[in-house]
Amino acid sequence: MIAAFDHVGLRYGTGAEVLHDLDFKLARGGFYYLTGPSGAGKTSLLKLLYLAQKPTRGRITLFDEDILALPRHALPALRRRIGIVYQDFRLVDELSAYDNVALPLRIMGHDEEEIAGPVAEMLDWVGLADRATARPPTLSGGEQQRVAIARAVIGKPELLVADEPTGNVDAEMAGRLLSLFSGLNRLGTTVFVATHDLSLVKQTPGATLLRLDRGTFNDPTGALRHPPRREAS
Amino acid sequence: MSARAPRETSLLPGLRGKGAGATGYLLAIMLFVMTVTGAAGLALANGSRLVAAASAGDYVVQLPGGADEADALARFVAAQPGVTEATAVPRAEVDALLARWLGPAAREADLPLPALVEVRVEGRATALEAALADRYPGAGLAAQAETLAPLLGALRAVALAGLGLVLAIALAAAAAVVLATRAALAANRATIATLHGMGATDGQVARQFDRRIARDALSGGTLGSLLAILLLFAVSRSGGASLSFLVGGARLIDAGDLALLFLLPPLAASIAYVVARATILRDLHRQP
A80 — contact with chain B (CB < 8 Å)? Predict the structure, then answer.
């Protein structure tokens, strides 16, 4: 298992719980879609998954580590194994597209010589080779989204978490991005995508659909708690 | 492929001027004030030391009503062991001194004027004091240092106050760095969250800000200090020997003091670095 949620609940401050009794496991090498109405708690669940938030109750195990028991200084190492595509992209406006994509590798401590090739290749793949020096404010929404995706996958993460990754691109680019995710998934990356676009699910054979409603999953068969084992080939 | 490698190794080379830009200007002003205050304090401390050193060993022998015996008294004093110089204050000088208080009529008045002898003694004056008590029982021996003690004390107190002011300005500068750092963090909150999300450590995030702030502090501080030293030069040139801070006369500020003043900018930059880093790490530690 790459992640396991055990009776997890989350509340912000003294408000009502936005997530409650989440009890599920993500198999290593799995491809998951998370859907649900607006306000169901999808983004909060993603935050727990990419370690931007700690649960107020329950237990989360990620990469076989109990994240609540981990000291703060151990979290960066776990986060480097996760690629994140934010819904609002969160590109650094002061950096070029190239530097934004290179950020995860620089954080990992790679030399510039090691970075140049993969970053250029990744920008080429998302169709932005000629926009490498452009800064995010000068890019269109679709271009920004592609930079965000390139940045999320450049480090070959073990877990890719994406929040509406195809929301701002046309159908052709959405197809290409989906094939990139599928390619990464075939190489062993566990992919977890929150989306409203159910057509994506149909294009991804073997993907698991999770439906979040009012902060919890409806799992009458227990398939989420005890998913079939799927190891990467 | 038009992508090219960036030259800067910093994660966030473009952050300059976003939030922390005021640090340089603040530190320039504060280092200007700090350098002027420090120089004034050093000059006062050095001045009081110079005066104390110059007056050490200087005494005045006073024999009430013995104006006519001034020369004999001077000869007697000069013959005592340890006395290197003994000069009778001329009658004309005593008259002039009295005239300031009593007017020209003082010369005609039949006043019992004292004999005054200025003496320089090497070492302690106890032998001279004993000899005077034996030969001139009514004579008094007064040390110049005792006369100047209240003035020197006041000078030293003002010099200490200058040091206190320098420390107060340093504290204010540190507080300004804290505020500028917090402003920089607030302005870059989203970027910091993104860096954390990608696995950046607190140390990596802190480095994006602390060195920048220290650089700003160093450049601003150097500018402020240089301007202050230029001002002191100008003052010393225009004031002549009486305001001799840097050149001529007594040299109230010497090369060592100048070196100390030139150390202020790197010292301020070091303090800014430590304060900024501590502020950043403390702030980051509150985040998930």
Answer: yes
**Mapping DSSP to helix (H, G, I), strand (E, B) and coil, where does residue B46 land?**
helix
Cβ-based contacts of A81 with chain B (< 8 Å): 199
Distance to chain A for B210, nearest Cα, Å: 17
Last residue of a domain, one of B107, B138, B169: B138
pLDDT above 70 for A219: no
ipTM over the 0.95 cut-off:
no
Q: Which of B213, B275, B210, B212 is nearest to B26 (CA)?
A: B213
Nearest to A92 among B2, B3, B191 (CB): B191
Instruction: Report in angstroms the alpha-carbon separations of B242 from A230, B11, B52, B80, B274.
Output: 90, 55, 18, 37, 41
Residue of A56, A79, A128 to mutate for B, most B C-beta atoms under 10 A: A79
Farthest CA pair distance, chain B: 110
DSSP E strands: which ranges in B122-175? 140-143
Check if A70 contacts B (Cβ < 8 Å). no
CB contact under 8 A, B4 and A132: yes
Q: How far is A98 from chain B (nearest CA, A)?
A: 7
Same domain, B116 and B250: no
Q: Do A72 and B285 touch (CB under 8 A)?
A: yes
Let me know whether A147 and A75 are in one domain.
no
| Domain housing B260 | 14-53+148-285
Cα distance between residue B27 and residue A91, in whole Å: 32
Cβ pairs bridging A and B (under 8 Å): 95
Residue finishing a domain among B102, B118, B138: B138
Tell me how close the Cα of A26 comes to any Cα of chain B, in angstroms: 20
Res B200: pLDDT: 93
User: C-alpha dihedral over B3, B9, B10, B16, to 10 degrees?
Assistant: -70
User: Which burial class, exposed, middle or buried, applies to A143 when counting CB atoms under 10 A from its CB (0-12, 13-18, 19+)?
Assistant: buried
Q: What is the pLDDT along chain B (288 residues), one digit of tens a residue?
A: 333 433 335 677 655 445 556 778 888 999 999 999 998 888 888 888 888 888 888 999 998 887 788 888 999 989 888 889 889 888 888 888 878 777 777 666 677 888 899 999 888 888 888 888 888 888 888 888 888 888 888 988 998 999 999 999 999 989 988 988 898 888 888 889 999 999 999 999 998 888 888 888 889 989 999 999 888 888 777 755 444 444 345 567 778 888 888 888 888 889 989 999 999 999 988 877
CA distance B82 to B132: 14
Q: Answer yes or no: are the C-beta atoms of A190 and A29 closer than 8 Å.
A: yes
